[in-house]
Design goal:
The complex is a heterodimer.
Chain A lengths: L17 E5 L11 E7 L2 E8 L7 H5 L8 H5 L6 H16 L5 H29 L4 H21 L19 H25 L3 H7 L7 H6 L4 H5 L7 H4 L20 H27 L21 H6 L1 H11 L8 E8 L4 E8 L7 E5 L1 H6 L2 H5 L4 H10 L4 H5 L1
Helix pairs in contact in A: 3-4, 4-5, 4-11, 4-16, 5-6, 6-11
Chain B lengths: L2 H12 L4 E4 L5 E5 L4 H10 L7 E9 L8 E9 L4 E9 L5 E3 L8 H12 L2 E3 L40
Parallel strand pairs in B: 2-5, 6-7
Antiparallel strand pairs in B: 1-2, 3-4, 4-5
Classes of the chains: A mainly alpha, B alpha/beta.
């Protein structure tokens, strides 16, 4: 910045800048984290972030838990798309235990993960709208997040922190209501998303507010460890689903939308485009799931009795099932020693799990690579020299989720 | 490019400075002495073929039974062009847990190193702002070290008759 806006009289001991605490609880932070902004008038001179307000020591807790009890911890990372975290965790365990999941399970997981991606992105893009003064779009899409949550509810019984699926597959097969609701969603959501885009994408006010603010170059973004939509908005087409496919993503046909300037507008566009791609993937996956007929349509988990809870009716009538049930519930299954890193494309980017086991019943060490935590450190660089009101939009377009940041 | 080639390049360049090569679950893993971690990172970053220019993850592990090499700092690097990942480890003594910072090469290392310091007490020499990040500033211990176990469900020394344990 070249010129100081506030001019103090000669010899004044006053500071020329104002310090503003944005957060920890503030309507604009959408979560519990703090920004200490140094302001010159309305321009940001520097920003310092404070995180850790909801740190819950998941990595430490995980060191005393059997694998299946860690799933509910992963729910609480990025709680806008907890099924992706759950599936990510199951995929890590399956990689460690060298379990091969049936194709039908993979496709069912893809449906759930893409629904979760939509529910994550629609929150982010609509909140960018709210922070720039347009509330309507938010209400439109929010109704459809409800529909997604109803689908989760039908599958696993809960809505936000889902604890969905088990190592090897799902706890039960999808019932007919799941597919009815999914069809309803696929039928109705495109029109709503289109209307949402009509409200924003070519809206003069919205464009003026977001174009050219909070931008970052591809080089800097990579150096800062950006992944996911925020990296793709800068023009780098890195997507874990394509680069290291998991859960049979290689069977699907979809595009990776990329932006150019990495500013708030590009991040918004990339997320919107990704929702269209997710819809495309869900449609394909739904067709693939429907193609399984007869006995194949009853497959919803891999055959791993050591880790997959047997049916309750079997537990009461069969010795074998009773033994496995007991061993799993009491956490008495020994995990083979190993060291594995696996990542999935979360709502915000590469969600990685680094798991070390030493042959005990719980992990020796588990580390979550949380995309949010890593890219939030660029916030100071993104906002420096910009206006305070743009910094608020930058914050929401980055999609910072406190749960993921603090682990 | 494959793991074998990267291994050859590293041996050729560092000799004994890169050792303990393994490939758990197809990811090349190796170890370097603690004072050469920056040299290795810089080499992997600058080399026109290797191009490990993306720091995916940086964390630490505590092995209390390994005398003199209790703490391991683990780097996960990614070559986005050839889409290949590697992992390397640097072991350090818990009495003097000092390791050079990677912030000069990767801006993303800043918070990841602060987090590692916060939980394991590893001092990253040359870090611009090495202070606690997720825990409170007043904390005077490093909670992820193994000497702080989570409560043991079988312990009997606690008088907690009212609550069933």
């Amino acid at each position: 910045m070249t010129e100081q806006h506030i001019k103090l009289p000669e010899g004044s001991i006053e500071k020329a800048t104002t310090t503003l605490n944005l957060g920890p609880t503030h309507p604009a932070t959408h979560g519990v984290f703090q920004n200490i902004l140094e302001l010159d008038g309305e321009r940001i001179v520097s920003a310092e972030q404070t995180v850790g307000y909801i740190h819950r020591a998941f990595e430490k807790i995980a060191e005393r838990r059997p694998l299946y009890q860690i799933t509910p911890l992963t729910d609480r990372l990025n709680y806008c798309s907890s099924p992706i975290n759950n599936m990510g965790w199951h995929l890590v365990c399956e990689k460690l235990l060298r379990i091969k999941t049936p194709k039908r399970v993979d496709y069912m997981r893809v449906i759930i993960m893409e629904l979760a991606r939509i529910s994550d992105h629609l929150i982010c893009t609509s909140v960018v709208g709210v922070d720039s003064g347009a509330f309507t779009g938010f209400l439109y899409v929010m109704q459809y997040r409800e529909l997604i949550y109803e689908i989760y509810e039908e599958i696993c019984g809960s809505r936000l922190t889902t604890n969905m699926g088990r190592i090897g597959g799902f706890e039960r097969n999808f019932n007919s209501i799941v597919f009815e609701k999914l069809e309803k969603f696929l039928r109705e959501y495109p029109a709503v998303l289109r209307e949402f885009e009509n409200l924003f994408t070519r809206n003069r006010i919205f464009m003026d507010r977001t174009i050219g603010t909070g931008g970052i170059s591809a080089d800097r973004a990579l150096n800062y460890g950006f992944t996911g939509p925020n990296l793709r908005a800068t023009g780098v087409d890195y997507d874990v689903r394509v680069h290291s496919p998991y859960s049979s993503y290689e069977d699907f046909d979809f595009e990776i939308p990329v932006g150019k300037t990495g500013d708030n507008y590009d991040r918004f566009l990339v997320r919107n485009q990704e929702m269209w791609q997710s819809l495309k993937i869900i449609e394909q996956a739904y067709k693939k799931v429907q193609a399984f007929k007869g006995a194949d349509a009853e497959i919803y988990h891999a055959d791993v009795p050591e880790y997959f809870l047997p049916k309750k009716s079997d537990v009461y009538t069969k010795m074998e099932a009773l033994i496995w049930h007991f061993k799993i519930v009491m956490g008495e299954t020994e995990i083979p020693p190993g060291e594995v890193y696996h990542s999935v494309e979360g709502g915000n980017g590469e969600l990685g799990f680094y798991l070390i086991t030493d042959g005990g019943r719980a992990p020796y060490r588990l580390h979550f690579r949380r995309p949010c935590f890593i890219y939030y450190q660029a916030y100071s660089e993104l906002t420096k020299g910009g206006m305070l009101s743009d910094a608020v939009i930058t914050m929401s377009s980055l999609n910072l989720i406190a749960g993921e940041m603090d682990a | 490019m494959n793991n074998e080639y990267i291994k050859q390049r590293l041996i050729e360049h560092f000799g004994d400075g890169a050792s303990h090569f393994e490939e758990p679950y197809e990811m090349l893993t190796f170890e370097t002495p603690k004072d050469s971690n920056l040299k290795v990172l810089q080499f992997l970053f600058d080399d026109p073929e290797l191009r490990f220019q993306f720091l995916t993850d940086l964390t630490a592990v505590h092995y209390p039974n390994q005398k003199g090499r209790e703490l391991a700092v683990v780097y996960h690097l990614h070559n986005l062009v050839d889409n290949i990942r590697i992992r390397f480890k640097v072991f350090t003594d818990i009495e003097k847990p000092e390791i050079f910072t990677a912030t000069k090469i990767y801006s993303s290392a800043n918070w990841m190193e602060r987090e590692t310091y916060d939980f394991y007490g590893i001092i990253f020499v040359g870090h611009p702002n090495l202070k606690r990040i997720l825990n409170v500033d007043e904390m005077n211990y490093f909670p992820m070290r193994k000497e702080y176990p989570l409560e043991d469900q079988t312990r009997i020394d606690k008088d907690d008759a009212m609550f069933g344990r």
